[in-house]
Amino acid sequence: MSRQYTIRELTKELGVTARTLRHYEDEGLLAPARNGQQRIYSARDRARLTLVLRGRRVGFTLAEIGEILDLYDAKDGGAAQLAHARKKFAERIEALEQQKRDVEESLAELRLGLTMIENVLADGAPRESPRLTGFGMLPLED
Amino acid sequence: MSRQYTIRELTKELGVTARTLRHYEDEGLLAPARNGQQRIYSARDRARLTLVLRGRRVGFTLAEIGEILDLYDAKDGGAAQLAHARKKFAERIEALEQQKRDVEESLAELRLGLTMIENVLADGAPRESPRLTGFGMLPLED
DNA sequence: CTTGACGTTGACGTAAACGTCAACTAAATG
DNA sequence: CATTTAGTTGACGTTTACGTCAACGTCAAG
Fold first, then answer.
1. What is the nearest nucleotide to A40, using C1' and CA?
2. Residue B127 burial (CB < 10 Å; 0-12/13-18/19+)?
3. Which of A87, A130, B128, B134 is buried most deeply by CB count within 10 Å?
4. To the nearest whole angstrom, how far is the Cα of B29 from the nearest Cα of chain A?
């Protein structure tokens, strides 16, 4: 019998509102137990929630996150179900790999911009330094 | 005088609708030239657009993307402006580094799920294989 | 000259992901 | 027992990022 959580405990621990948790429940992402009317979140609920939050951070919609969570529960399905799940997983993986590339490129650009600014701030050579007009990717002329 | 683009050319090339481009213009993210009433997109506009799209893919809001684009144009500002820009860049970089970690963890989990499914599909050992109930992260019991 | 093909500006609609009340219950505490 | 404190269920509001018309301009082709 691992830990249990009230709704407030979970919200404080993970930095979301109670409304958010109830919303996730409405959307079928969580299904906490009840003590009468009150929700009781198990360790598994908590784990699912952290996955939801991470999925959200990486840009998945709640519906997509729900799909993914469902896939993990599709262990019971027949071969057709599993094949479908496999396809979905592969799609998500591809999307995330693109995501990763995007993040890395964005990071590279932001870091470039940062160091340029810091150079200017450091040796105060705003006029002589290469213009800060744009990423290096942005053509200066039309 | 590098290339120019009509709105259709740009939409087809980058896979967005004309409505989207006009929306970005409304939001101040793009400011294409005009030939009478018609928009003419320069290579620089195109570059900005690709940055907008990438920013969107990594989860930034249009407002945030606008901020970032503005920062790159803040080359002219005084030291205070630049210091502010520096801070903003640093914030975005931190957020993206978290993003990257999230993406990598998500990828790891999805890959795990995928191979589990493929194992079951391959040697058809659904019952004996470790249960597919969850990521390995998801506790099976409450 | 009229028909497309392509463009334009409003203006309203919509889906997602909650926020924000209101009105109520239930347990604990002074 | 009256009041916090924590929780509940509707139900409507809000923001973001466009979609989806409607109504109109423009120019080359048949």
1. D7
2. exposed
3. B134
4. 14
